[in-house]
């Protein structure tokens, strides 16, 4: 198949949509398909990338909207650039967004008669604080737009139940197929966290909790840090590594005790060893859909301690690969201590690795191939 993927965020930006999109492109190419990715231009990437077509973008636009620093806003291509893109022979178009990227996918589909697949990745209302408009106004604009876009595409996918529920709440009544994000299991299952611990002076036998992700208001970092301190009152040797960067870093640093280390961002190649270094992954965020970092933690054999949310309930089997608790410091502290209990931890680590098998890139790429083939067959009827 000749596949076109239209995304508003891509490498080297660090977020779940960019990572999962790149992994799916890799997995589909490994299965012999031709994949063209249409994504925003980024100054850190070379001018020529095999199979990637960079569209004009604006960091100034991102800053004006209050978006995270590494999220360039994609700009609509003009007729000349569009004429140079390999659009007319595509068999299927897949977009990760219902805004400009989605509109481009719908427009380009008319050139080839290809079906459009849409993955609803984001609980958009959780990010309205990045826009200058009042939340009430943002919701009034957002909900009908997303529902109308979903009605225009041929297939709608959702990584988790949170997105199915969101689309229903927005007024979309069509089919929404659950379709989890992938992880490259090989890199995580072979990872060794010894050197990563040593880099941050974590003793080999010290219990280590980790948060890995963006440092942003919607991640509830204050609750997580308070939970850690409550747990440390019972386990004085407990340590926490906060891996990532974002607008809330200064706030998190101000709340962090000497048992907490904020590492800043790490290259993606080091993420497997970072997660393998930890004994537990902790998050107080309730804004996640099916977060890549939590799937990757499972693949590394690191059990999860997560605030209650549809995403956490999708990923966590209670007492098998982690625990789901209320989004309070007391509840998360109790969950962290339970997961780290020496008699429980080895079983939870094994359960984490086993539960990650369903997210293996090869399995998910084959499943996505099936989604595309069915969409093409329906379009040709």
Please explain how this structure is put together.
- There is one protein chain.
- By secondary structure, the chain is an alpha/beta fold.
- It folds into two domains: 2-182 and 360-380, Rossmann fold (3-Layer(aba) Sandwich); 185-358, Rossmann fold (3-Layer(aba) Sandwich).
- It is 43% helix and 16% strand.
- The chain has 16 helices and 15 strands.
- The protein has helices at 16-30, 59-65, 79-84, 100-112, 135-152, 161-170, 185-189, 194-199, 221-234, 249-255, 271-277, 292-299, 310-315, 329-340, 345-355, 361-380; strands at residues 2-6, 34-40, 52-55, 57-58, 73-74, 92-95, 116-119, 155-158, 177-178, 208-212, 239-243, 260-264, 280-283, 304-307, 322-325.
- The strands form three sheets. It has a seven-stranded parallel sheet with strand order 3-2-1-6-7-8-9, with helices on both faces. A six-stranded parallel sheet has the order 12-11-10-13-14-15, with helices on both faces.
- Helix 9 (221-234) links the parallel strand 10 and strand 11.
- Helix 5 (135-152) packs across helix 6 (161-170).
- The chain starts with a strand and ends with a helix.
- The relative contact order is 0.12.
- The mean pLDDT is 93.
- Residues 195-340 form the Glycosyl transferase family domain.
- GO terms for molecular function: glycosyltransferase activity.
